[in-house]
Amino acid sequence: MPNLTLDSLQSIIVDDVRRALHEDVGDGDITASLIPAEHQAEASIITREPAVFCGRAWADEVVRQVDAQIQIEWLVKDGDKLSADQTLCRLRGPARGLLTAERCMLNFIQTLSATATRSHHFAELVKDTSVKLLDTRKTLPGLRMAQKYAVTCGGCHNHRIGLFDAFLIKENHIAACGSVAAAIREAKHIAPGKPVEIEVENLDELRQALAAHADIVMLDELSLEDMRTAAELAMGKAKLEASGGINESTLREVAETGVDFISIGSLTKDIKAVDLSMRLRYQAR
User: Fold this and answer.
1) Active-site residue, selected from the candidate residues 24, 42, 220, 226
2) Who's near 27: CB < 8 A, 6+ residues apart?
C-alpha cells in the first residue's frame, strides 16, 4: 500500500482540528477573555528533548481556525531531527488567540512527533537491510491518518489504512470460509484488484496460501528457522510479512530472515508525548 502524503490529507486535517477545538474550546475560551481583545503577543514553541518533528500542517490549521490574524514562522519541517531546547516556530498575533490555540497545537505536535520519533528509532535498527517496517491499525481513535503520516516522517511505511482498502484474512476468517484456499478465492471474487493478505501459523498453511496465489502472507509468530524457510518457499510467489511480538531486541534477527515486511503495532500505540513548551511574551502597547 502507498504511503500517505499531506496532499491526500487536507480535508482530514481540517476535520481533525475542528474536532479537537470543539472538545477544548466549546462555545468559547472564558479564561482568554480576561485579556483585552486588542492585546498583541509573540510566542515561540520549543522542544525540551530530542525528537523527530511532525505535525506542522495540523498546527497551521489550528491557527487558521482559531484566529487567522496569527502569523506563524516555522523553523523546522516534518521529518527534521530536533535537539533539546530547539525552537520549532515563532508566532505573533492577538494574545487571546495565541492562548486559545496553544494546547491544541501542542497536543498535535507532541503526539505526531512522538510517533515519528518512535518510528525513526525502529527504522534505524534495520536501515541497512531491505526490510520495510509497517504500522498497523493500533492507532489513537480519530487520529489514524495523522499517526500513519507521522510513521512515514520517521522513516517507516504504511500498512492498509483500515478494513476497506485491503484484505487481511486471519484465523477466524479462514475457519468461517472453510480453508485457506477458499478464503483467498472468495476475497478475489468479492473485490478483484484489492490486495489479498492472509495470516498463517505454520509452513503447511504457507504452502496452501502460495498455491492459492495470495499477494502477501503474514507469518504469525513463526520461529526464525521457519521464517527463513518461508522466505525460500515464497520467493517470486508472494511477499512475506512477519508479525507478532516483535520488539527492539528481536527486530534485527527477524529482518535478516529474508521477509519483505515487519509490522509493529508499537510504532503508534506505545508512544510517549514529546515534551514541548510555548513561551509567550506580550508586546508593548
Assistant:
1) 220
2) none
Dump pLDDT digits (tens) for 28-53: 999 999 999 999 999 999 999 999 99
Would you state the pLDDT for residue 284?
Answer: 53
Residue 103 known to be catalytic: yes
Give the bridge partners for 42, in sequence order: 92, 281
What is the CATH code of the structural domain delimited by 157-263?
3.20.20.70
Q: Give the CATH number of domain 6-118+272-282; options: 3.90.79.10, 3.40.50.300, 3.40.50.12780, 3.90.1170.20.
A: 3.90.1170.20
Mean pLDDT for the stretch of residues 207-212: 98
Query: DSSP character for 283?
Result: P
Is 170 one of the annotated active-site residues of the chain? Answer: yes
Where along the chain do its domains lie?
6-118+272-282, 157-263
To the question of pTM greater than 0.90 for the whole model, the response is yes
220 included as an active-site residue: yes
Average model confidence (pLDDT) across the chain: 96
Helix axes 95-125, 56-66, angle to 10 degrees: 170
Cβ burial of 236 (10 Å; 0-12, 13-18, 19+) is exposed
Please write the tens of the pLDDT for every residue from 71-121: 999 999 999 999 999 999 999 999 999 999 999 999 999 999 999 999 999
Please pick, among 92, 137, 170, 194, the residue that the annotation labels catalytic: 170
Exposed (0-12), middle (13-18) or buried (19+): which is 285, by Cβ within 10 Å? exposed
